[in-house]
């Protein structure tokens, strides 16, 4: 009986919670795209539309009713690439997360750092991707499956010249080397082409499509960089590299 009396109060709270969640997820869906600005504009127009209905502004209400249907079609056409990219990104997300233990992360990050330091000292390039929430299965299929524990010597061997796998990217999944010689999408930014080589462009390209943590060792400059979500962290020493990798792996994309 008490539950029935409280239902009229629970239902609005549940509806508000669901609406808040849907709006929040939609904003995250379009984060970092031009469509996000358009989405904010639509929200403002919807609020204005509700106000016009509330105060019974007949002319403005009629005008908004006519324009709304046209604007939805126009937005779908104009922002088609962003919507497609967002849907593709959404499809790559893992439903169930696999969390590594703190000590496991420390161990494999240390091995990656050691390998990168040795490669940089020997002026050898490398490209390493660490999977987070977005699944990298399609990129793993483009290379050679290894499925091995992470070892600095193995990473160095893979990126040694004349090795058939040294030109591609190495992918790490759940604390193991999943594959090497993988092909990543290249960024098309012309300004970037003048500053960086193919490995940096490939790392940036993958960072545009996934939330992977990308590590690049430059054979020209003998420096180590991290690229995450299109952001560069350059000239990292071994200690800085380890700290940054751990920080990014623990960062939730939704924060």
Approximately what portion of the residues adopt beta-strand conformation? 5-15%
Provide the CATH superfamily of the largest domain. Answer: DNA integrity scanning protein, DisA, N-terminal domain
Q: What order do the SSEs take from the amino end to the carboxyl end, as H and E?
A: HHHHHEHEHEEHHEEEH
Number of helices: 10
What is the rounded distance between the termini? Answer: 41 Å
> What is the correct CATH architecture of the largest domain?
3-Layer(aba) Sandwich
Give the biggest beta sheet: 7 strands, mixed
Shape: elongated
CATH class of the largest domain: Alpha Beta
Notes on the structure:
This protein is an alpha+beta fold and 255 residues long. Helices cover 57% and strands 14% of the residues. The chain contains ten helices and seven strands. It has helices spanning 2-29, 34-54, 58-78, 80-92, 102-121, 137-140, 152-158, 190-195, 198-209, 238-250, and strands at 126-130, 144-149, 169-173, 176-182, 213-217, 224-228, 231-233. It has a seven-stranded mixed beta sheet with strand order 2-4-3-1-5-6-7, sandwiched between helices.
SSE order and pairing:
Blueprint: H1 2-29, H2 34-54, H3 58-78, H4 80-92, H5 102-121, E1 126-130, H6 137-140, E2 144-149, H7 152-158, E3 169-173, E4 176-182, H8 190-195, H9 198-209, E5 213-217, E6 224-228, E7 231-233, H10 238-250
Parallel strand pairs: 1-3
Antiparallel strand pairs: 1-5, 2-4, 3-4, 5-6, 6-7
Helix pairs in contact: 2-3, 5-7, 5-10
